[in-house]
Amino acid sequence: MRLKTLIAGQLQPSAARRISPVSCAACLVTVGLLAIGIVASLSTHFMLASLPNIVLLIIGILILDVLLLQFAPRIRIVEAVQSLLYGVLYLAITSVCAVLAAYSLQRLAFPLRDQTLQAADVAMGFDWLAYAHWVDRHPLVQSVFHAAYYSIWPQTFLPLVVFVFTRRIREARVYLLTFSMALTATLFVSALLPAVGPIVFFDRTTFDVLRFTGATPLDQLARLRETGPLIQTAFPGGIATFPSFHATMATLTPLALRRDRRFFIPLLVLNALMLASTLSEGAHYLIDVIAGTAMAFLAYAVARWVIAMEGGLFARGSRRMSGARYAPT
Q1: What is the pLDDT of residue 313?
Q2: Which of 30, 247, 295, 311 has its CA 20 to 30 A from that of 156?
């Protein structure tokens, strides 16, 4: 009995153990994303001088982590805050790596696919111009759509906050891995199948209210597609058209929080508006939205499988180490 108690005590996590919501697989995806961005940047002689600077954020989070670890009591709220800090840091680093990769990959300048994407919309019976003008004639609808469209930023952090404060670290790891995989896949597809968006076919001055603030910046995309060295000094925007990452997040957030009824129903309403606003505010084709939605489901399914596999590997490794530690000599 004493031996079992001793073993159980030795195997308990220490009071100072960090609980990270970031999986090994998620770290590998981000490192790969950074490598892709650097290689594509160097090979195309491209420099993104306006890359967001998150050095102060990284330093601040590391200092706060050390302070919490050394001086704060080891209670649930402190552990949750630490887990949240790691998750926020991961999202920030991954997003910056994604900006570099997105702009660098567009330098490959594959043929634009706007004709093909517009043809897909026509085949589905969707008239983008009629839809955009309808939104433009209803300023209240446009205002609601605008707010829903830009709710993507708080929504990106919402599942992480919910999961760490309810001690559902595994779900947090699935969410973060889904985010990074979907983002990486979106950048690759958008580089292979680049497009400007439906606004390229129409005159923006015919709209009174809509400003298409989330549309692909045409001037930046045009410069990226030019040959020769390039230093990008303008602040980067959303450069991916197909698939829509807004649609991915509008699907992923309620999907991740589907068991939390207090969030799930409001998120369904809000993100239905986000999907609708992606067509007008973001100037996306309907096929972009459909592809982005499918991306969320696919990445989420793969992430759940990867996290399960990763957990199994760590569990087997822990059992082998425990067996070796307490094996008779």
Answers
A1: 67
A2: 311
